[in-house]
């Protein structure tokens, strides 16, 4: 097991209480962004992403989909992901959107969503479920299973590694073609990197600081332009 999940806030979630990690910008207010964890849980890296977004002027919230559990062990992460009830994840993510939209520090009537690996898939599912309330979806190296991508009403910017053996580029391109065919503004960027190239904890040895920096700059600009 890794250190415990990074938590500093709670919010309502379908009649229950969910936990998460929330940061506000130095100015005290800004556009809202949901951050969705990888299969490792709400780790220090995910909390760092929240803090990085706050430093860029956003109000960022990462819901803890695993209820406090984290790991640095890939087989354990696989088990935790497989045992996550999809309906609970959807409920907590929708609750995070509700919490940000209603938060006094959030200046935007819509939110953005950014996620990594498992969270990248959840970001696209959330955008499909929430319609216009998610005005910008930014998946990093993840695709959903069973989501109706044609239901997305916001804009999408994807970041995927060309050497990613777990998320084939053919499937990525097909998904983005489906979205574009439905009139979704879907921007796809690929990088000469592997899976999890943005994760600077480098748990699987694929972190690429140069490509991560390029992708992050694009993602921040996209969120700034589309969350309004």
From TrEMBL:
Source organism, top-level taxon? Bacteria
Q: Where is the composition biased (Polar residues)?
A: 1-16
The protein's GO terms of the molecular function aspect are: hydrolase activity
Pfam families tied to this protein: DLH
Which keywords are on file for this protein? Hydrolase
Residues of the region (Disordered) are: 1-23
Q: Extract the InterPro entries matched here.
A: AB_hydrolase_fold (IPR029058), Dienelactn_hydro (IPR002925), Dienelactone_hydrolase-like (IPR051049)
Residues of the Dienelactone hydrolase domain:
20-226
> How is this protein named in the record?
Dienelactone hydrolase family protein
Q: Which organism is it from?
A: Vallicoccus soli
Lineage at the top is: Bacteria, Bacillati, Actinomycetota, Actinomycetes, Motilibacterales
């Amino acid at each position: 097991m890794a250190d415990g999940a990074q938590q500093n806030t709670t919010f309502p979630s379908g009649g229950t209480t969910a936990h998460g990690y929330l940061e506000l910008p130095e100015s005290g207010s800004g556009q809202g962004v949901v951050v969705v964890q990888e299969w490792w849980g709400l780790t220090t890296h995910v909390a760092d992403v929240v803090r990085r977004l706050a430093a860029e002027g956003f109000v960022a919230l990462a819901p803890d989909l695993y209820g406090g559990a984290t790991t640095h062990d890939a087989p354990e992460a696989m088990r935790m992901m497989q045992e996550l009830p999809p309906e609970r994840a959807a409920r907590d993510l929708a609750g995070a959107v509700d919490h940000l939209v209603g938060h006094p520090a959030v200046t935007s009537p819509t939110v953005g969503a950014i996620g990594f690996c498992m969270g990248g898939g959840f970001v696209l599912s959330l955008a499909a479920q929430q319609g216009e309330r998610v005005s910008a979806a930014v998946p990093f190296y993840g695709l959903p299973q069973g989501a109706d991508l044609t239901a997305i009403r916001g804009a999408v910017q994807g970041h995927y590694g060309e050497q990613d053996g777990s998320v084939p580029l053919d499937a990525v391109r097909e998904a983005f073609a489906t979205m574009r065919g439905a009139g979704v503004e879907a921007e796809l960027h690929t990088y000469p990197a592997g899976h999890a190239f943005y994760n600077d904890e480098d748990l699987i040895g694929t972190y690429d600081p140069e490509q991560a920096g390029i992708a992050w700059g694009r993602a921040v600009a996209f969120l700034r332009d589309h969350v309004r």
